[in-house]
Amino acid sequence: MSTEKQLKIGVLTSSGDAPGMNAAIRAVARTGAYHNMKVYGIMRGYEGLLSAEIEELEPREVSNIIFRGGTLLLTARCEEMKTVEGQERAANVAKVLGLDALIVAGGDGSLRGAQALSKLGVNVIGIPATIDLDMACTEYTIGFDTAINTGMEAINRIRDTSTSHERCSVVEVMGRSAGHLALWCGITGGAEEVMIPEYKELNTERVVQQIIENRSKGKRHNLIVVAEGVGGSVALAQELQSVLGIQSRATVLGHLQRGGAPTALDRMHASVMGYMAVEAVVRGERNKAGIVKDGRHALMDLDEALACTKPYDHSLYEMIKVLAI
Ligand code: F6P
C-alpha cells in the first residue's frame, strides 16, 4: 500500500457561466482521479466555499457534461468575497477542508478572489473562463468562441428579415466593458458598423453618415453591432429611424449569448486547462493561472497574470471599414 499522502483538491466555477466550464470541471475531476486525488466540487462559486457546500466529484459524476453549456457546479457573483472578512473566512474553510489546491474557473474578478486566497495561504490555480475575453494575461478565455458563434448565428437570422424589409438592424451583444465579442460578432456577421467602448469617438452622427453613404452605394439594409459597454441600442435604432427615415429595429441578445453547447474550440481549451491545472498541483506548483500565449497553453504566476495590461489592437476595427465598403 502506498504511504504517499492523498492530495485533496477543490474546483469551483465563479462569475458569469461560460460554455466550456463543464468540460473544464470534467478534466479536473478525471485528471485528479488519474492521480488518485480526492476531488471536491464546490457549489455556487465562492458562496459554496463560504458555506462549505461541497460534493466529492468521482469520474462518473462528470459523465455526459462535456457537451453542455452552463456549469454543473452552478455559479454566483459573491459580494462577500470582495471583503477582507469574506476572504479570510473562505481561506479558513479551504484550510479546514484540507484542500491542497483550489482550482477556480471564472473571469477576472474570480481570479482576483483566488489571488486574495493565495495571500492567505491557499494554493490556487486559475482557469480563465468568460465569454468577454477581457483578461490581458491570455489570448483566449473559455466560452468566447461559443458566444461569438451564437451571436453570429443570431445576426444571420436578423439579416434575413432586415434584408427583406430593407431595414437598419441594430444588434447589441454582451461583453461588459470590453468590445471583443461585438467586434468578432460584427466581423463574422458582416456588419457595416461596430460600436465598441474602446473606440469612443464612434458616435451616432458617424453611423448616420455611414448609412447615407451605404445607401448611395446601393446597400438596401444595414447591420450595426453595438457592444454592451456602449449600450443604448434601442435609442440608437429610434434615432436612426427619425433622422434617416429608414425603418430601424434593435435586438438585445443578452443572456441568450451565454448559453448553449460549447464549440469544439471551447471544449478543447477547457479540457487542456483543467488537465494542466491538476498536473500543476501534482508537480507542487503554487498560485498559477492557465493562459494561452502565442497560441500555446502555459502557466503563469497568478500575480503576474493579474498585473498584465494589453494595449487595444485597433487593426480589426479598421478592417471593418474596408470590408463594409
Ligand atoms: O461576464 C460575462 C457577462 O455575460 C458580461 O458579458 C455581462 O456584462 C455580464 O456577464 C452579465 O452578468 P449577469 O448575468 O450577472 O447579469
Task: Name the beta content range.
Answer: 15-25%
Bound ligands, each once: 6-O-phosphono-beta-D-fructofuranose
Briefly, what CATH class of the largest domain?
Answer: Alpha Beta
* Rg on CA atoms, Å: 22 Å
Query: Can you tell me the number of structural domains?
Result: 2
Please report the total strand number as a whole number. 11
Shape: elongated
As a percent range, the share of helical residues equals 40-55%
Protein model, in words:
By secondary structure, this protein is an alpha/beta fold. The protein has 2 domains: about 10-145 and about 260-305, Rossmann fold (3-Layer(aba) Sandwich); about 145-260, Phosphofructokinase domain (Rossmann fold, 3-Layer(aba) Sandwich). About 40% of the residues lie in helices and about 20% in strands. It contains 11 helices and 11 strands. Strands 3-2-1-4-5-10-11 form a 7-stranded mixed β-sheet, sandwiched between helices. It has a 4-stranded parallel β-sheet with strand order 7-8-6-9, with helices on both faces. β10 (about 290-295) and β11 (about 295-300) form a beta hairpin.
